[in-house]
Amino acid sequence: MRFAVISDVHANLEALEAVLKDIRKRRVEGILFLGDAVGYGPNPNECLQVLSDNCRILLAGNHDRAAAGLTDIEYFNEYAKKAVLWTRQVLTEKSRRLIENLPVQQKLKKENVLLVHSSPKEPEAWHYLVTLWDAEVNFQYFDERICILGHSHLPFVIERLPSGEMITYNSTAGLGQNERYIINAGSVGQPRDGDPRACYVLFEGGSSEFVRVEYNIKETQLKMRNAGLPLPLIERLSRGT
Predict the structure, then answer these.
(1) Which terminus of the chain faces fewer neighbouring Cβ atoms within 10 Å, N or C?
(2) Which are the contacts of 102, defined by CB distance < 8 A and separation ≥ 6?
(3) Which fold has domain 3-239?
(4) pLDDT in tens, 156-167
(5) Radius of gyration for the chain, computed over Cα atoms and rounded to the nearest angstrom
(6) How far apart are CA 241 and CA 65, in angstroms?
(7) pLDDT digit string (tens) for 99-133?
(8) How confident is the model at residue 106, as a pLDDT?
(9) How do the domains of the chain map onto residue ranges?
């Protein structure tokens, strides 16, 4: 199966449209979305509509739940909190209903894959999975061969060998049948790995590949300024941090 996985769009319509254009050229069989359609960016309703129209599976992330009033925002930093409060004001009722009905994880039985926004362990506690120790703990909380997630905005592949040894990849990785994997799809709308280009992961022929896509960052930043969103959120898009 040839499919694309996208995550953490964060209301960045320019990045989302650029990624979908790139995916369409590759003739994938399906697009899967891992959550955080909104938060930080200026086009929450538009992004939710585009995702709903184009993705076979949609999950909810912590910013989605927060924007719908379903998750406490006290643990959010001040900029994320301001963006969530702004998003709540502009969300349409249709968008809110869509978010309220999205799951936080889903299993693909045929492909032996678990999809989750944050982590297999307590998926609605919104833990970050970024270290090998985090991976070691979380491998115990799912039975599937592959878990694909987002949330940290950092693209990586962690391979667990039958011996228990773990190897990390940051680019193309072959996916063996006897190994298990945790794969982070990175972020479409707010990359944090030092590369400001939008990121998604493509699965084809037993391998995964991170794809980077240029988009009109300045247009998104202008919209954010006009909406009065926090300056640090605007500036970080240029840095990919």
Answers:
(1) N
(2) 35, 58, 59, 60, 64
(3) Purple Acid Phosphatase; chain A, domain 2 (3.60.21)
(4) 999 999 999 999
(5) 17
(6) 23
(7) 999 999 999 999 999 999 999 999 999 999 999 99
(8) 97
(9) 3-239
